[in-house]
Amino acid sequence: MKQFLILLITSSMLLLACKTSQENKTFDKIQKIENDTIRIANDKIEYEVIIIDPGFSSWFNGHAKPKNYYSQNYLESHNRIWVSEWNRRAMLPLQYNPNLYEMTIDYQTNIDYGYDVNYMLYYYLVYFQITNKQQLGGYTPRI
Q: Can you tell me the distance from the alpha carbon of 31 to that of 34, in angstroms, rounded to the nearest whole number?
């Protein structure tokens, strides 16, 4: 009985002593999350990305690499190809599912949208391709 009590107390102490640490991701003052709606904007050039997709914010919090992991040039090069293919599919509703490609994305290659806008657009397009089993271009989406 005494050994059982010692074992029980030791087990309890070990369980109480263990604590998992959770890393909180913050995105400056730019991002607002409300009911799975994410808004990220570059106020200097007056552009924004609004993502309304159930599940994206939780997926993003679990999978996104920290900011500055990828260079802005890397993000822009992927976004250019993926957005171009997205827009092509949005214009062909009889060939591609119109529920997936409801509208085009106004992404012009000659405009510097800034790092934050490119970062969120990149991760949304990765999320979209993985969850909907789509391939938007020459690059395979990776996490």
A: 10
Q: Which amino acid is at 33?
A: I
> CA-to-CA distance for 27 and 51, rounded, in angstroms?
15
Across the 143 residues of the chain, what is the mean pLDDT of every consecutive 10-residue run? 56 54 46 59 71 87 93 96 96 95 92 91 95 89 81
Q: How far apart are CA 74 and CA 53, in angstroms?
A: 24
Amino acid at 54: P
Distance CA 113, CA 133 (A): 27
Backbone torsion region of residue 84, taken as left when φ is above 0, otherwise alpha when ψ lies between -120 and 50, otherwise beta: alpha
CB atoms within 10 A of CB 140: 10
> How far, in Å, CA of 116 to CA of 106, rounded?
16
- Residue 94 is given by DSSP the state T
